[in-house]
Structures are given as structure tokens and as C-alpha cells.
UniProtKB/TrEMBL annotation:
<protein>
    <submittedName>
        <fullName>Leucyl aminopeptidase family protein</fullName>
    </submittedName>
</protein>
<keyword id="KW-0378">Hydrolase</keyword>
<keyword id="KW-0031">Aminopeptidase</keyword>
<dbReference type="GO" id="GO:0004177">
    <property type="term" value="F:aminopeptidase activity"/>
</dbReference>
<dbReference type="InterPro" id="IPR043472">
    <property type="entry name" value="Macro_dom-like"/>
</dbReference>
<dbReference type="InterPro" id="IPR048816">
    <property type="entry name" value="Peptidase_M17_N_1"/>
</dbReference>
<keyword id="KW-0645">Protease</keyword>
<keyword id="KW-0464">Manganese</keyword>
<dbReference type="InterPro" id="IPR011356">
    <property type="entry name" value="Leucine_aapep/pepB"/>
</dbReference>
<dbReference type="InterPro" id="IPR000819">
    <property type="entry name" value="Peptidase_M17_C"/>
</dbReference>
<dbReference type="Pfam" id="PF21337">
    <property type="entry name" value="Peptidase_M17_N_1"/>
</dbReference>
<feature type="domain" description="Cytosol aminopeptidase">
    <location>
        <begin position="309"/>
        <end position="316"/>
    </location>
</feature>
<comment type="similarity">
    <text>Belongs to the peptidase M17 family.</text>
</comment>
<dbReference type="Pfam" id="PF00883">
    <property type="entry name" value="Peptidase_M17"/>
</dbReference>
């Protein structure tokens, strides 16, 4: 599915978008029969209200959507998307006073409103309403963002039986081919064990061998490197997860899925930069050759890591990938991972927390997240917690005891592998726990649009 706005030449019906404060004035300017109909039906322009408008022949001539109050709208996003599914099928166009970022966010929500993960369903989805691009909105940009988000969702929603390391590599190859990028897949027992020992240690027990996927695109401009955690399924290893925690672990490659969605947006929009995407693709499985608690691994950069919990594997594969990324100069290095439950406890499932030491990056992300309906929140690289990841027997501990500051200590762990790079880390959830406007229950991208919106300022494009 590639979200598109309706054909601008197609006949369409109007969807009037009216907030509570403007409703009486708006209604007084409508034809008498229409105003009487709205009064008779009790329509008051509350947020989420929808009323179809009859034509003189009894057909549906249009509709009016309530946009409520500013206070009501602040408690959610993509409000028109919640209404879109209740409209009759066919093309519609917006009649609204919305402008700028507010209009853009609602238009993006309308594009995403039709998303359904239907790969395993035999029943066809019912026809839905479609929308013309509103005046003043950059259709190509919104369609690129929507297509990237759909790619992310589809990858996360696909179960590990069809989205293991091999299938993830195939998905990256397809994306590279679509946009003229190059892909190198680094695999092989001896090669990985020697050059990427922690990627090898995490993935060696799985049926499908581990690999590091390295995509390059663009020939000029600033360099952007994205690193995404690609743990296609996480049993927890020998520290096996309970069933209640393992049930969603097909989404543990959500970081990889999100950087691929972001890469899709960047390449589709032909941004003037040089892009690199690194994905360590593994499964954390249980077998006789699985890594063990209290094993000590030597990372690609020479640091030793004591394994105090085999379920803290994401930071291990990212560490080798980040080291490799930092060996090539970049203007920005960003990692994304479904890394810790502690991040969910801190900010819940709807916000993408991020870490950076760069004030300009932090400000640009916060502004872009607000404008693009992609909420993010800055967390601290709190240096006094560095001692928590130093076990004594080795340079680093992959799972500090005590349970405190779990997301921060994971971020501090990763920072040990980036050298002098301009580094930002996102600890995302990658999952929508319940249906919401434009976000059905299931896989979801987080932080990608905020990064896309921040790039012009961060990279001076």
C-alpha cells in the first residue's frame, strides 16, 4: 500500500471542518435548509462530531466535521482521521480555515487513516473515502512521509516466521533497488566472529545466521548515518523472557524498521545528503551455543563487556554497528532501537525519548516533533551514572543491577562506542497498544518525522 491523495481532477464532495467557536457564524452563512438540518440533528461542532449534509435529490452532498476546542484537540492528534472512516466512499476535499502545520498534520492523518495490515487476511477491506490534497500542502512530502510510515508498520507487523534476518535483508535490498542505493550484507561465521564479535555472539544460536546490513545512498552533501536495532525476535536468550514479555517480540526490530522508513522518506524526497543505514539483523535465540550470563565479550572497538543478562542484547549488536559507523566520518549519527522497558515506564508508549549532548540537535528535534505530530522528549546522558555500567571485572556491564535509570544507562553504554561522532539515540516503543486515529493497534513509527523535519537545521541543508 502506497498512500496517495485522490486525483485532483476527480469529482469530490466537501468536508467542512468547523470548530466550536466558529460554528454559529459558519452555520448562519449556510443555506436555510442546511442550517435547519444541522440544528435538528443537534450538531454542535464538538471534536469528532460528523454530520452528513443532504442534497436536494436526497444524495449526500457533503459533510461537516466538528473540530472542537483547542483544549480538546491538545489531548490527541489526527482528529480528522478518526472521522474519515465514517464518511461514504469516494473522493472528498477539505473546506477549512486550518493552515500551516495544523493543516499538514491533519492531511497526513487522512493519508494514514486507510492503513491496514492485510498480509494475512483473506477478506478484502471495505472501500474507504479518499481525499484531495488541501491547498497549501506539499503533497509529495506528505506522501513520502506516509509511505515511509507504512513501510515501518508493515515490517514491524510481520511475524518473525516471515521477518527473520533473511527477510529483513530482502526488505532492505528492495528499498535500495527502489531508490538506486547500494547494499552490502556482511555475514559469515568467521567474518562476523572476527570483526563484529557482539553481533555474532547475540545471533549465533539462531536458525538464520546474523548479519550486518550496510546501505549507502547519495553522492554529495553532508553525511547522515542511521543505525537501527534489527533483533527480529527476542526470546531473551538463556535469561529467557516470560510469556507475557515475549508476546510482542516480533517488534524488537522496530528500530531497524523505523530507520528504514526514515531512509525511504529521505530518498523519496531526494534530500541533498549522503545517507548510510546500518542494521545488525539477528535473532536472540536459545541453543547450545548461545551466549551465557557472565560471559565476557570483546567488542569491535576493544572494550570488554560482561553479560549479566542475555536479554539485554540490543545494546550489544548496536555497539558493534555504532563502532563501525563511527569509523567513517559523518555529520550526524543517529541510532534507533526498541531498547528498554524503562523508557516506556518513563514516558509511556506514545512518546519517543531521545538522548543527545548537542543542544542544536535537541532543539531542532523538539520543534520538528511538535510541528509534525511526532512527539519526542529529551532524556539526559547523565554522566554520574557511568559507574553503574562499569562492573569491575570488565570494562562494561550490559545489564546493571538495581533496576534504576535503565534507559539512561543503556544510552550511556551505547555512547561508549561512537567516538567523537555527533550522536543522538532514540529509545522507541514501536507499537501502538490500542486503536487511535490514523494509528491502528500494531506496529508504528516513532521519531522518524521529527528527525526528517530536524535535518535541514541539523545538517544545514
Amino acid at each position: 500500500m502506497c498512500p496517495r491523495f485522490a486525483d485532483p481532477a476527480a469529482p469530490s464532495r466537501p468536508l467542512f471542518v468547523v470548530d466550536e467557536a466558529a460554528f454559529e457564524t459558519w452555520r448562519s452563512g449556510r443555506p436555510a435548509a442546511e442550517a435547519a438540518w444541522l440544528e435538528a440533528t443537534g450538531f454542535a461542532a464538538g471534536l469528532g462530531e460528523l454530520q452528513l449534509l443532504p442534497g436536494p435529490d436526497g444524495s449526500v452532498a457533503g459533510a461537516v466535521a466538528g473540530h472542537g476546542t483547542a483544549a480538546a484537540r491538545a489531548r490527541g492528534r489526527f482528529h480528522l482521521a478518526a472521522i474519515a472512516g465514517r464518511l461514504p466512499e469516494g473522493a472528498w476535499h477539505l473546506e477549512t480555515a486550518l493552515t500551516g502545520a495544523d493543516l499538514e498534520a491533519e492531511a497526513l492523518g487522512l493519508l494514514l487513516a486507510g492503513y491496514r495490515f492485510a498480509r494475512y487476511r483473506t477478506q478484502s477491506a471495505a472501500p474507504r473515502a479518499s481525499f484531495k490534497v488541501p491547498a497549501g500542502v506539499d503533497a509529495a512530502r506528505l506522501e513520502a512521509m506516509a509511505a515511509g510510515e507504512v513501510l515501518t508498520r508493515d515490517l514491524i507487523n510481520t511475524p518473525a516466521s516471515d521477518m527473520g534476518p533473511e527477510a529483513l535483508e530482502e526488505a532492505v535490498a528492495a528499498l535500495a533497488a527502489r531508490h538506486g542505493a547500494t547494499l552490502e550484507a556482511i555475514r559469515g561465521e568467521a567474518l562476523l566472529a572476527r570483526n563484529f564479535p557482539m553481533i555474532h555472539a547475540v545471533g549465533r544460536a539462531a536458525a538464520q545466521p546474523p548479519r550486518l546490513l550496510d546501505l549507502h545512498w547519495g553522492t554529495s552533501g553532508p553525511r547522515l548515518t542511521l543505525v537501527g536495532k534489527g533483533v527480529c525476535f527476542d526470546t531473551g536468550g538463556l535469561n529467557v523472557k516470560p510469556a507475557s514479555s515475549m508476546g510482542l517480540m516480533k517488534k524488537d526490530m522496530g528500530g531497524a524498521a523505523t530507520v528504514l522508513g526514515l531512509a525511504s522518506m529521505i530518498m523519496a524526497l531526494d534530500l541533498p545528503l549522503r545517507l548510510r543505514v546500518l542494521i545488525p539483523a539477528v535473532e536472540n535465540s536459545i541453543a547450545g551455543n548461545a551466549m551465557r550470563p557472565q560471559d565476557i565479550l570483546t567488542a569491535r572497538n576493544g572494550l570488554t563487556v560482561e553479560i549479566n543478562n542475555t536479554d539485554a542484547e540490543g545494546r550489544l549488536v548496536l555497539a558493534d554497528a555504532l563502532t563501525y559507523a563511527a569509523e567513517e566520518e559523518s555529520d550526524a549519527l543517529i541510532s534507533m532501537a526498541t531498547l528498554t522497558g524503562a523508557a516506556r515506564v518513563a514516558v509511556g508508549p506514545d512518546i519517543a525519548p531521545f538522548y543527545t549532548d548537542d543542544e542544536a540537535v535537541a532543539g531542532a528535534l523538539a520543534r520538528a516533533g511538535g510541528l509534525l505530530a511526532d512527539p519526542v522528549w529529551r532524556m539526559p546522558f547523565h554522566a554520574p551514572y557511568e559507574t553503574m555500567i562499569e562492573p569491575g571485572i570488565a570494562d562494561l556491564d550490559n545489564a546493571p543491577k538495581g533496576g534504576f535509570a535503565g534507559s539512561i544507562t543503556a544510552a550511556l553504554f551505547l555512547r561508549r562506542f561512537v567516538g567523537a561522532a555527533r550522536y543522538t539515540h532514540f529509545d522507541i516503543y514501536g507499537w501502538q497498544p490500542a486503536d487511535a486515529p490514523a494509528r491502528p493497534k500494531g506496529g508504528v513509527g516513532q521519531g522518524a518525522r521529527a528527525i526528517l523535519g530536524a535535518l535541514p537545521g541539523v545538517l544545514k541543508l
